[in-house]
Amino acid sequence: MEIALKSFSQLDEREILAVAIDSEDDDHRVYMSFAEDLRDRYPATAELFESMAKVEATHHDALLRAYTKKFGPNVLPIRRSDVRGFVKRRPVWLIRNLPIDVIRSEVGVREAEAYGFYHKAAEQAKDPDIRKLLNDLAAVEQGHEALATEIEARVVPKTEREREGEVNRRIFVLQYVQPGLAGLMDGSVSTLAPLFAAAFATHNNWSTFLVGLAASIGAGISMGFAEALSDDGSLTGRGSPLLRGIICGLMTALGGLGHTLPYLVPNALPHAFLMATGIAGGVVFIELWTIAWVRSHYMDTPFLQAVFQIVLGGVIVLGAGILIGAA
Questions:
Q1: Secondary structure, 3-state, 204-266
Q2: Average pLDDT, stretch 210-232?
């Protein structure tokens, strides 16, 4: 039997204080968990979260004193999850090596929610002392963004913020750019030979399109599974294998479809084969240069070296496909 959650408007003062006590304790422990996770990577940023955790601890103590004074030592076991309206959170704090942006986003949601809770709770409270405490806490939570900025300016030097950015860039490259680039390279290059072999063997645009479509989809499925099964990302920091597989598979298929779609030019049009092949050749040129740029920009490969590796290799595969099809 499913038990309905209690709405915020139904809470009495004792329940409001109990929820607040549990929330502050939870925020304190989560912030300390973030600090522990960040200590090796960003020690100064970890100090930021330790400072914020101390603030939450003082809130917890003030609320507990007010509760004990009015209702005694037995704190009701009511939590945010028991009240309708609170954000349902994924337990991101259980994940190690979280990106710093994810952590700060979680903190921002918590602080905004805490302000809204105290502001509404103060309006419901009848006891003047409790109302004053809740209003004071609402004011503090509202100013936490400024507090975080002040603490960050004090404890997080510019060099560390730059280091955070560099680490995040490497994570982005590992989790998104690398599998996407591998897929785009494979799809763009590996489908050239069968596509242009079919084109020059048949001189039929529709038949060529079907060959290219099959090659692109087949390569996408194959590369997607290969990437997803390569490793689970727990040790390499490459992130979710499912996400990497999807990115790699889609980019592989996209790489092949780019120069396959021109062969949708109807055979009935004058010079249809030459038109489709000319457009496909232009698309291949753009694809290969794009891959070379991505390798140069994200993979620290010298641009001319990237051009030599990708464009020359693509031209060789293209030539092989044309020769086989024309034989």
A1: CHHHHHHHHHHHHHHHHHHHHHHHHCCCCCCCCCCCCHHHHHHHHHHHHHHHHHHCCHHHHCC
A2: 86
